[in-house]
Amino acid sequence: MPDQPSPNQAPAPTKLEGVARVIAVSSCKGGVGKSTVAANLAVALAKSGMRVGLADVDIYGPSAPIMFGVDERPGPGEDEKIPAVKAHGISLMSMGFFLDDNAPVIWRGPMAMSATRQFLRGVEWGELDILIVDLPPGTGDIVLTLCQEIPIDGALVVTTPQDVALADVTRGIAMFGKVNTPVLGVIDNMSAYVCPDCGTRDEIFGARRPDQLAAELRLPLLGEVPIDIAVRESGDAGAPIVVSSPDHPVAKAFMHISKHVMDAIEKLDDAKRAPEPVEIAQEKEREVVRIKWSDGLLTEYALSGLRGWCPCAGCQGHGGERRFVPSGNPRLQRVEAVGNYAIRFCWADAHDTGMYSFDYLRELAEMDECKPSS
Questions:
Q1: Where are the beta strands (DSSP E) in the chain?
Q2: pLDDT tens for residues 141-152?
Q3: Which domains are assigned to the chain?
């Protein structure tokens, strides 16, 4: 009987009651306007007819109370859960509601993680179509806690065009891969300044075409948001620009992005409805992985071909074209499920960043490099 790779034994995260989808907004780096994007995206989705919540879990730098013009201090309800605050059509919760003015949050990792769990489980969100989670910058404890605590339907990465921001984004994308969270796409914030008088476009943070940025990150670009003083003014006034100036070009950009986000979610749903693996086995003597699919198809892959077509950015580079990377005689240690849409192969040399979507695996079965030798 063939050997089967050991499954991932980590407990599965459980859904939030009443919340259909959870979308995380990450920046991987501070100062790129992540919270502004999260706030305006939440309002844009609500304007599209969805029931939306926003969880501001940026524990050390909460900004939702200012951006939404809320200064109340919510208390527990009858069931000991804290009712979400309503503002601009959004169900809202933020650590900023519970802090004194100018009081710093000096917490070690365990305290921050405990607060994150409380925000997720201890809030009465009601019935939501989407909960937007505004993450703190970076890839630390709070981000890991979120991904381990609840199933994340997808992550959005906010960046600016300069090299230093993109380097951190690449690390952040790899982090989401490690915790089995699909990245839906990238939002290019502060992409350029357009003079309101003459229309001149100044690319302050660098000049990267949308197709170039998408190719470098190997992710779809969901939209660009220009620099405009109206964005800062509306946020400081407690009304995101999508609320205060819905006809403003930036507000229209956020509405455009919200449509792309929903399209990305629907595409992921389509992938989940496609045929999926029901049995994965490794034949060590033949150096072959065999997959039996829910529609009855049986596919086989030579380990060298499977590893050579690894889809991670480290193997594929940033040129935008798929390439085969020879790797000698790879040994497979285990296989892990990534949600309901992909598989991660963990190799003996500790390489485990490639997430093979089900569609991609079906495609690889026809590649010459993946066909087992007779």
A1: 22-26, 52-56, 82-83, 85-87, 90-94, 123-124, 130-134, 154-159, 183-194, 201-202, 221-227, 277-283, 288-293, 298-302, 332-338, 342-347, 355-357
A2: 777 777 777 888
A3: 22-272 (3.40.50.300), 277-370 (3.30.2020.30)
